[in-house]
Amino acid sequence: MPVSTKAFAAQSATTPLAPFSIDRRDPGPKDVAIDILFCGVCHSDLHTVRGEWEGTLFPCVPGHEIVGRVSAVGNDVTKFAVGDIAGVGCMVGSCGHCPSCNEGEEQYCETTGFVGTYNGPDPVLGGHTLGGYSDHIVVDEGFVLKVGHDEADLAAVAPLLCAGITTYSPLKHWKVGPGQKVGIVGLGGLGHMGVKIAAAMGAEVYVFSTSPGKREDAKRLGATDLIVSKDADAMAEHAGSFDFILNTVAAPHDLDPFLVLLKRDGTMTLVGVPDAPHKSPSVGIMVFGRKSIAGSLIGGIAETQEMLDFCKEHGLTSDIEMIDIQEIETAYERMVKSDVKYRFVIDMASLKAA
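User: That's the sequence. What structure does it adopt?
Assistant: Structure tokens below.
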């Protein structure tokens, strides 16, 4: 029988998030039930609930940066026990048998696409999936992560389930490490994790930003320096010197100034998805340096677990601002203005008061 669960939901693209009761399934044989302690706030949440991306299904309960305590497990579950701390990221299912799924890259599922933690098809109850702005969730064991950080750090762990893996995956895939010079474009929720992770991997890290006032924060996070991207002279000093650039900016912009900074065979990987196309990059810059522009999504479940373990080993969490769920609309407005350092996280204890 479905279990009634407290949540915050948007009923349409023009109505604010508000208290709402949703149904969660009873745990099946392979399911893990989790009482949610903290849920990070991703820009994707805002885009979805406000209908800025096509295909939002209402009522919409966003949230895919989830950390909580296991409250029940199915009879066939082997990796989790009641009382464990667990995480759930951006996906809760995939076809499980296509080439990408077989290779542990479920985020690129070629048959059905991955099942999003919210706004995806719910294969058990029907309708669509409902995310982490709630006090309880039930997820197949294969899409649940082990969280080994200290309990005092759990709120700051939550954004790792999206911002952490979104930056870790390309840094790992393009083999970032000691002896490499790496650039991070943008210093927001994604960018600040990119700096921390690339530095922990041993790279020499630089931040590109239009805001010179972020220099000290960039250094605090692990960067060698900040380069003001609209300062042509500052950019020219670094021409042809970067092995890899991770571009986290989700607004349309000119990619050419960053391509010029890459060494021969260097790559710039895009993880921000703008709402309009970037200016068409110069083919000449790419051809005459064998340079590449690439893209990257999140990571598979195995790689996400690897990222969590890496972050625990290196003492990494997100820089967060904790909010009550009743403050979510204000948080969204501040997020639009980039007025957060660097990720909002909801304390789900506040949901009881709602």
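DSSP finds eleven helices and 17 strands in the chain.
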